[in-house]
Amino acid sequence: MAIWIKPIPRGPQSQPTQGRKTTMHRQALIVGGGIGGLCAAICLRLTGWDVQVFEQAPEITEIGAGLQISPNGVKILEHIGVMERLEPAVFEPEAIEIRMGVSGRPILYLPMKGVAAQRWGARYLQVHRADLITALSARLDALQPGAMQTGCPVRGYAPCKDGAEVILANGRRIQADLVIGADGIHSRIRHQMLGTDAPRFTGNYAWRALVPAAQLGALAPPPSGCIWAGPKKHAVTTYVRGGALVNFVGIVEQRTWREESWSRTGDRQEALADFNGWAPPLLAILEQAEVLHKWALFDRAPLPKWQDGHVMLLGDAAHPMLPSMAQGAVQSLEDGYHLARVLGAAVGPDIVAACARHYAQRIDRSSRVQRVSAQNLQLFHKSSRLAQLMAYAPIWLAGQLTPSLVHRRSDWLYGAPVPPLNI
Ligand SMILES: Cc1cc2nc3c(=O)[nH]c(=O)nc-3n(C[C@H](O)[C@H](O)[C@H](O)COP(=O)(O)OP(=O)(O)OC[C@H]3O[C@@H](n4cnc5c(N)ncnc54)[C@H](O)[C@@H]3O)c2cc1C
Predict the structure, then answer these.
(1) Is residue 421 part of a domain?
(2) pLDDT tier at 8 (50, 70, 90 boundaries)?
(3) Is the CB of residue 35 below 6 angstroms from any atom belonging to ligand 1?
(4) How far, in Å, from the CA of 35 to the mean position of ligand 1?
(5) CATH number at residue 181
(6) pLDDT tier, 65 (very low <50, low <70, confident <90, very high otherwise)
(7) 249 CB near ligand 1 (under 6 Å)
């Protein structure tokens, strides 16, 4: 299913400002209007910056995709005034579960509803990516009308006196105090800053599908974030649109990726063959989904820097990761929020120093998330009975005897403090 978000019309206010204003009116130019770029724009705007977001897509097209937003992300959405807009679209799962993909036998049932807010200060939520983007864009537009321009691809950047400039695809150059590359895994800004090496294929591709929950009837998956583990593949089922839609992600190992395009519509028979013999709720989704999307999963090793003077990277441009921790979007929210906090009232050279502090304070955490995401994938893909028993029996036992110990393992991630922005 394709969801179309109406482009924000170009009006007089949405024209990029030529030249820079005084340092009292600090300007930031953000390349990419995804979750990371929009969050950064909102946070900077809230802390007194004038912002412009350049999004290459003429309109933001969203293929069926659910996101889990853990409490560390929800806290940020609350602080920046996005949560109230998003509220009608979210789903709060009862638990995070791990099950055997074929038999459906439970390995872990970790309660989340009620527990997450109490333990980590915010709920654990599931949401459609299009709904999150819509809520972020609406918030940004309310703070600074016309701040995002669609159909505006960026070619690169260049340093300039006391700042940097963005070079649009049409050759136009616009100066600012700060340029942010939030342009995703295939980031042009990152290429220019760090070289043209391509992101690495992780040896996995992902199926994604959405099906109305009512249509699945008794075969609807449990109302949780449910991970279905199996040899060399796993699936995740979640709910979005307030619980009206079931979201499916199926991750399958494959040595090489030969498709020229990194995203394509997949073949139903191929998806059913991938999950042949798996639990009935999963097969029902694959049988009933209107469209199945299939694309390759890429990541990168942690980067030695995210900064070139007044130019900063964030989100997938800085630290792309496997989705097996459901943290890519959440980490991009953390990036934008943290950067705005660290920048505070900085002007001129202090902006460069603040960006360096941002990297120094964020790199360990985002690298750890990248690392654990890759480890989780190995955990969910155990092949032999023995490997499954050795990996899953202790998890099952811990979940039965001391669920709070299992919750505690996520304290470093979900429970990280989110101090208010200095607005
Ligand atoms: C199968 C799957 C499941 C996932 N599940 C989760 C989950 O449950 N929870 C979670 O937190 N994360 C999840 N993620 C990760 C998440 O989707 C990404 O980490 C997140 O979207 C990154 O946001 P971003 O803003 O950095 O980049 P993007 O979302 O890629 O946005 C970049 C934007 O920049 C634009 N752009 C690119 N180049 C240019 C240019 N030259 N000029 C102008 N604009 C440009 C693009 O059009 C795009 O809009 C999942 C990912 C996958 C693949």
Answers:
(1) no
(2) very low
(3) yes
(4) 7
(5) 3.50.50.60
(6) confident
(7) yes
The atom of ligand 1 lying closest to the CA of 152 is 43
Q: Could you tell me if residue 109 is inside a domain?
A: no
Q: DSSP class of residue 238? A: E
Question: Ligand 1 mean position to 328 CA, how many Å?
Answer: 8
Instruction: Please enumerate, as own/partner, the contacts of 162-170 that have beta carbons within 8 Å and a separation of 24 or more.
Output: 162/310, 162/348, 162/349, 163/20, 163/310, 164/308, 164/309, 164/310, 164/311, 166/29, 166/31, 166/54, 168/54, 169/56
Could you tell me the pLDDT band of residue 64, with boundaries at 50, 70 and 90? low
Verify whether ligand 1 is closer than 6 Å to residue 329 (CB atom): yes
Say how many domains are in the chain.
Answer: 1
Is the beta carbon of 282 within 6 A of some atom in ligand 1?
Answer: no
pLDDT in tens, 356-365: 999 999 999 9
The finding on whether 37 has its CB within 6 A of some atom of ligand 1 is yes
Going by alpha carbons, the residue nearest to atom 37 of ligand 1 is 183
pLDDT at 17 over 80: no
Encoding tokens for residue 37? Answer: 């770029």
Answer whether residue 142 is part of any domain: yes
Domain assignment of residue 25, given as a range: 2-64+126-198+300-377
Q: Please indicate, yes or no, if residue 228 is contained in any of the structural domains.
A: no
> Does residue 346 carry a pLDDT above 50?
yes
Query: Bigger pLDDT: 61 or 250?
Result: 250
Q: What is the pLDDT of residues 177-220, one digit of tens each?
A: 999 999 999 999 999 999 988 888 999 999 999 999 999 999 99
Q: Tell me how far the alpha carbon of residue 123 lies from the centroid of ligand 1, in angstroms.
A: 22
Q: Give the phi and the psi of residue 378 in degrees, each rounded to 5.
A: -60, -40
